[in-house]
Amino acid sequence: MSFFTTCPFCDGSLISWWLRPSFSKCRVCRLVLRNPSPEPEPLAEHYAESWSDPDAHLNETGGMDFGLATQYTRDLLKSLGLSDAVGLRILDFGAGRGFLMSALAAAGATVWGIEPYGFDGLRAQGQTVFRTLEALPPGLAFDGIVSMDVLEHLYQPWHSIAALARLLVPGGWLCLSTPNPRGLNARLMQSRWRETHNQGHLMFMEEYCLMMMLKQANLSRGKGVRWSIRHQNSLVRHGVQRLLERVGLGGTVRVIAVGGDSGVP
Q1: How far is Cα 260 from Cα 220, in angstroms, rounded to an integer?
Q2: Which residue has the higher pLDDT, 79 or 229?
Q3: Which of 14-18, 95-99, 256-260 has the lowest mean pLDDT?
Q4: What is the pLDDT of residues 141-162, one digit of tens each?
Q5: Which residues, listed in sequence order, are joined to residue 173 by a DSSP beta bridge?
């Protein structure tokens, strides 16, 4: 276990934030981090065990299905001012079981994936997938990169954001989503918030924190986006969910950042 005395991102001072499990929060960038942090080796073993039966361990392998991925693709394209993804080269960083890759491809994109644990399953589907960013063919660049519910699993997500930014063509975009530590559920439940009990969740970033990371990666044109993703069958619950998203109290932070000159707003 590694214990942080200062923020690993900005070196700001930390305060105790949640207990059992224990999380700290940075006074400066507002990063919320598991403290102490687990060692990489046992965590990797946990992931490998989860991916041995991905459908039985959706907390680790992702709860997205093709219907949800289609909603994500629809709202992503709308946020970018696009009607389809024809001609776009898109990378899915943390592709999971491949549903978002398939939905993006159905919208016309040429899609690559990065997935260290679900690699074999994606290859069996016929997807173009690699285990790490370093394994990508040299010189490959992307019009867009998506990373959904991945950053919270990383020890240094700001380094990954910077690495992704370097893979964008001029004017390319990066779309990130991660659980929202300022959401209503997180505020009410605190250490009982369900996201804290996923042992692979190491860090939580509110929109302000993500914007700092994007700026450090030279992606200064970032904005939060509010998507109308329907998780609930009940119209009332869906309406409440949409309202919370609009006021920044939803369960997910989503941002899009554009690098260089682009017509994307």
Answers
A1: 9
A2: 79
A3: 256-260
A4: 999 999 999 999 999 999 999 9
A5: 144, 258
**Least confident span in 6-10, 85-89, 164-168, 245-249:** 245-249
For domain 59-258, the question of CATH label 3.40.50.720 is answered with no
Question: From residue 46, how far is each of 43, 130, 203, 226 by CA, in Å?
Answer: 5, 21, 17, 33
In this prediction, residues 113-135 reach a mean pLDDT of 96
What is the three-class DSSP state of 111? strand
Helix 99-106 × helix 66-80 angle, to 10°? 50
CA 36 to chain centre: 22
- Whole-number Å distance between alpha carbons of 262 and 79: 14
Task: Mark out the alpha helices in 172-258 (DSSP H runs).
Answer: 184-189, 207-216, 235-246
Q: What angle do CA 104, 108, 113 make, to 5 degrees?
A: 40
Q: List the end-to-end C-alpha distance of the chain, in Å, as a whole number.
A: 43
E-strand stretches of 156-206 = 168-179, 203-204
Mean pLDDT of the chain, nearest integer: 92
Q: Estimate to the nearest angstrom the gap between the alpha carbon of 121 and the chain centroid.
A: 21
Is there a contact between 147 and 94 (Cβ–Cβ < 8 Å)? yes
Checking if the pLDDT of 213 tops 90, the result is yes
Which residue in the block uniquely carries the two structure tokens 């369900």? 194
Instruction: Give the distance from CA 43 to its chain's centroid.
Output: 18
**What is the CA angle 182-224-154, rounded to 5?**
65
What is d(CA 4, CA 11) in angstroms, rounded to the nearest whole number? Answer: 10
